[in-house]
Amino acid sequence: MNKKILPYNFDFTDILLKTPAELIVEGSRLAIDTKYDDIASYKVNHRDVSKIMKPKNDLLYKDLLATKRKRMSKSPFAFFRGSVDVMNYDLNHYNNSGIKTLIGGDAHLGNFGYYGSSEGQLLFDMNDFDESHIDYWEYDVKRLLVSALLVAKQQGFHLKKDVEPFLKKSVKTYLKTLRYMGNLPSMERFIKPNTLENISSSFSKIHESKITFDKSFKKIVSKSINKAINNNSDYAVKKYTTTLKGQKQFIEDTPVTVHVGNEDYKKLVKGYENYLHHSRSDIKQFLLQFHIVDIVRHTVGVGSVGTLCYLILLENSSGDDLVLQIKQGLPIYQDDKIYIDNKHSTGEDIMNCQLILQSASDPFLGYFNTEKNSFYVRQFRDMKGSVNLNKLDFPAFCDYVNVCISLLARAHSQSPTFYKIIGYLESKDWISEALVKYSKRYVEQVELDFKSFTGGGKHGNKI
User: Which Pfam families does this entry report, sorted A to Z (predicted)?
Assistant: First the structure.
């Protein structure tokens, strides 16, 4: 495979010696011949999405496919969340900007939320990196805009009058954030964590509307922030475990939570030991004080259903508990096929992408490989939380979308190519309109695929 298109090739040596001004000019040049339809075009078509999803689904745990289908069938947005491979397939069949960066790969509105930093600070940022890889920046922006339109329709907002004009402005927010990040000292851009206070401060400098934003943003987070703060290992132990004969163990809830067999247990214990070997010295020293109490397979999310995912319950001699999540790293869908390279550890790749894209990450983040699979490890319930998208009124929706697209820009700014994006977006006034136009058309495709997927069309096939 050509080295230049490897999805985990972080080598940007061709631009490292160029100045930001030179990169901005290069981005502008890439946009010179770009036409409106190069960005906005999408032809809605009737198709069997199960054929597109099959290569990835063939890698999933078959006993959970019915659960995945059930969760995806709840709404068009739920289907969209569980069918990232379908959109990646479609994006690969249309024009692109020519500017690659490290992308989240699945940057919909539901993949932003709270989590705890190493210092115990509550952060708000992108929180799903299973699909992260090197690709075109606009893939993330388009996926976020499509998700925003789906949520807006779900909430009954007026699309043409209110939502579409707002989303055009939100693309400008993405550009303004890139400019802002470009003007920061490199070290500040690299280390500044996305605490709620820092988000508010940055946003006010971008929009010069701190008072209005603070009032609205606090309204959004107030209902979920306390829940996130209390969502930790202690809470997980109380919710997911019971004590039998003086020994804690996870509560079974078939098919979502199931104890593993002896063979899998031994493999996971060996994998955990391998994870410790790769961990930072302070994390390794801390975890060596704990021993494994119980292991279960535990299903999470929508798109992740079917991947091998486990919970490990740890306990130390003082009776303190810690729950770690082990999640299978699956290959991504790129260039019409599943990217598989036996020389690569997908768990390690996902870990590396998360470390780059997040402003700060879980200290327990790590990986290990088994003979057949690759996994990444993270703390379970480390102050994790999310904003309930079904509860947003239109002003709150606007603020939430602006925050997410601003955080997306901050993530993209960690790749040196981001200056090219600035030049590209600055060169044409209509690009934001074209991106929204594409997203509007693609929503029609999502709804048609959803109808087919749930049996309302001729392609109502099972996964």
Answer: DUF2252
Residue 112: in which H helix or E strand, if any? strand 112-116
Helical H segments across 252-393, by residue range: 262-278, 281-287, 346-357
Is residue 219 over pLDDT 90? Answer: no
Q: Cα 365 vs. chain centroid, distance in angstroms? A: 15
Distance CA(357)–CA(137), nearest Å, equals 13
Q: Tell the residue number behind the tokens 């919970």, with chain if given.
A: 311
pLDDT tens for residues 297-351?
Answer: 998 777 778 789 999 999 999 989 999 999 999 988 776 678 777 777 899 999 9
Q: What one-letter code names the amino acid at 278? A: H
Can you give the pLDDT at residue 55?
Answer: 86
229-244 burial, b at 16+ Cβ within 10 Å, e below that, comes to eebbbeebbeebbeee
Going by DSSP bridges, is the β-strand pair 374-379/100-103 parallel, antiparallel, or unpaired?
unpaired
Beta 374-379 vs 366-369: how paired, if at all?
antiparallel
Cα 62 to Cα 112: distance, rounded to the nearest angstrom: 28
Alpha-carbon distance 341 to 237, whole Å? 37
Kind of pairing, strands 333-334 and 133-136? Answer: unpaired
- Percentage of residues of the chain with pLDDT beyond 70: 89
Between 300 and 133, residue with greater pLDDT: 133
Q: Looking at this protein, which amino acid is placed at residue 44?
A: V
What number of other Cβ atoms are within 10 A of residue 146's Cβ?
24
- Four-CA torsion 207, 411, 377, 301, nearest 10 degrees: 60
Spatial separation of the C-alpha atoms in residues 328 and 43, rounded to whole Å: 34
Residues composing the chain: 463
Termini Cα distance of the chain: 30
Q: What is the mean pLDDT of residues 369-387?
A: 85
* Domain range list for the chain: 19-229+390-453, 233-379
- DSSP notation for 245-279: TTEEEEPPBTTTEEEPPHHHHHHHHHHHHHHHHHS
As a whole number of angstroms, the distance between CA 38 and CA 435 comes to 10
- Mean pLDDT along residues 440-451: 96
